[in-house]
Specification:
With about 140 residues, the chain is of the alpha/beta class. It contains 4 helices and 7 strands, in the order E-H-E-H-E-E-H-H-E-E-E. Strands 1-7-6-2-5-4-3 form a 7-stranded mixed sheet, covered by helices on one side.
């Protein structure tokens, strides 16, 4: 599935489309270069899920937890970890296998720990600030 997002104002619609497309999948892996819009898109997803708390990148905390109508939402940013052992120390398995939404930025840093059935979302900047979101939900 491909979702083109010409402007920031269309992010809520794109987030709704993504949530509809993933069905029961709860682990979403976000790939993209620095500045591609991963965190911004995750914020839009959180809003669609009814998160009312302020959302932000967990760059230094590694994981943020938000309350939503759908239950807890976990937002990970593995950019600053140096080894997969740090994810083990964090207890990533408790989050990933909780049945709750887990939005993961920089999943390539923990490639060997990722569930095979996770949805992979690639975000790319196109022209004039637009974004293209490519969603792969196949296991």
């Amino acid at each position: 599935m491909i979702i083109d997002v010409p402007t920031l104002g269309e992010l809520p619609t794109a987030a709704g489309q993504l949530l509809a497309a993933i069905g029961n999948q709860r682990i979403l892996l976000f790939y993209g270069v620095m500045g591609a819009g991963k965190t911004t898109f995750i914020n839009a997803l959180c809003q669609q899920l009814g998160v009312t708390d302020p959302t932000s990148s967990p760059t230094f905390a590694i994981v943020n937890e938000y309350d939503s109508a759908a239950g807890p939402v976990y937002h990970f940013d593995f950019y600053r970890i140096n080894s997969e052992q740090e994810a083990f120390d964090l207890g990533y398995e408790d989050y990933f296998y909780s049945g709750s939404y887990c939005f993961v930025e920089w999943p390539e840093k923990i490639a060997n720990l990722l569930p095979a059935d996770a949805a992979r979302i690639h975000i790319m900047a196109t022209t004039d600030g637009a974004r293209r979101i490519v969603v792969d939900t196949s296991p």
